[in-house]
Amino acid sequence: MPRPIPCRANSLEDPQQRASASISSVRLAAALSMDDLAFRNLLLESGVLSAKEETRWVPDALFTLVQGPLRNARRLEEATRATKFMRRVLAFYHPFALRFSDLPKDPVRPPLSLSLGDCLPERELTARLPSSLAPLCPRPRPHPMQLTDKWVELGCELVSMLVSSPVGVQFLLEDKLLPQLAEALFQLDTVRPPLPAPSPTCTD
65-69, 114-118, 192-196: which has the highest mean pLDDT? Predict the structure, then answer.
């Protein structure tokens, strides 16, 4: 009997998928081969080393680090041991820190008192204002849900990067993230009976 011909993916999608995979591999190779100066400049550009508040961080720089150079064991070792970078980023995701866990999870209606810059695209806004006032006009702010989605995606990339390296796994074991997640999930479990109280110890 003739052997069955294996099924192949859609021929129209194959070139696109191969091109996308090729571009991703080139970007990853370039990020992994980043020199020391470029890596440290990118750490500074992320804003994490200069500020604890996530509102002052640069998500694009964080994505570049997590998806590229931090997948190199030596770079990750430097970020976890020689700087506060990884501790600060992971601390943002600690459940009991009430930072990531307090981000809006549903679309929020914009406040009633909006400036003109919050409602109009930058190009249209500039066209409506005198040239002397255009530089003073604020740019449109990103929607809260857009920022939340970015932090969620970054958290997934961060954990994926850490568990793929022995250095990252060791750092996770030393951090408070996993114990706090376990305790938070235990508090949500209404089926599991409470842990028994420890028995008193008899002393002479």
Answer: 65-69
Residue 148: what pLDDT?
Answer: 87
**Which of 57-66, 111-120, 174-183 shows the lowest mean pLDDT across its residues?**
111-120
What DSSP assignment string belongs to 77-136? HIIIIISSHHHHHHHHT-GGGTSGGGS--S--PPPSS--HHHHS-HHHHHHHS-TTTGGG
Please give the angle made by the CA atoms of 115, 121 and 126, to the nearest 5 degrees: 80
How far apart CA 57 and CA 59 sit, in angstroms, is 6
- Alpha-carbon gap, residue 88 to 93, rounded angstroms: 9
Residue 147, Cβ density class (10 Å: 0-12 exposed, 13-18 middle, ≥19 buried): middle
The region of weakest confidence among 26-40, 68-82, 105-119 is 105-119
Whole-model pTM: value is 0.64
Q: Is 167 left (phi over 0), alpha (psi -120 to 50) or beta?
A: alpha
Residues contacting 157, CB < 8 A, separation 6+: 63, 66, 67
Q: Report residue 83: phi and psi, to 5°.
A: -135, 170
Residue keyed to tokens 């021929």:
11
Give, rounded to a whole angstrom, the gap between the first and last alpha carbons of the chain.
84
